[in-house]
Amino acid sequence: MEPNILDLRQERCPMALLLAKRHTKGLSVGEQTQILVSDSNSMKDITRFLHNHLFSLTCEEMNGYYRMQVIKEPS
Predict the structure, then answer these.
(1) UPF0033 domain spans which residues (predicted)?
(2) Rounded CA gap, 57 and 24, in Å?
(3) What tens digit of pLDDT does each residue of 8-66 get?
(4) Pick from 55, 59, 71, 75: CA 20 to 30 A from residue 5's CA?
């Protein structure tokens, strides 16, 4: 199975948030994805959105970017 990764390291808000919303909207319950972002403001905005829309999230700071592990939770 191919990993589900959305690389937004070249994007800034509001485009990064919009693309993250579109990407996570298509996830099924239990499905997971990784979102990569380099902008701390984008990371905060995406985190806020995910917490408000039934996703569990872990975030890890890497070398110059953030890796967000996202899982769609049941409603």
Answers:
(1) 5-71
(2) 12
(3) 999 998 999 999 999 999 999 999 999 999 999 999 999 999 999 999 999 999 999 99
(4) 75
Structure-block tokens of residue 16: 């990064």
Query: 29-33: which pairs have CB atoms within 8 A and are 24 or more residues apart?
Result: 29/72, 29/73, 29/74, 29/75, 30/71, 30/72, 30/74, 31/4, 31/71, 31/72, 32/4, 32/69, 32/70, 32/71, 32/72, 33/4, 33/5, 33/6, 33/70
Helix, strand or coil, per DSSP, at residue 43: helix
Q: Give me the residues paired with residue 71 across strands.
A: 32, 56
Residues 51, 45, 5, 65: what is their CA dihedral angle, to the nearest 10 degrees? -120
DSSP secondary structure code for residue 4 in this structure: -
Question: Can you read off the two tokens belonging to residue 19?
Answer: 């693309």
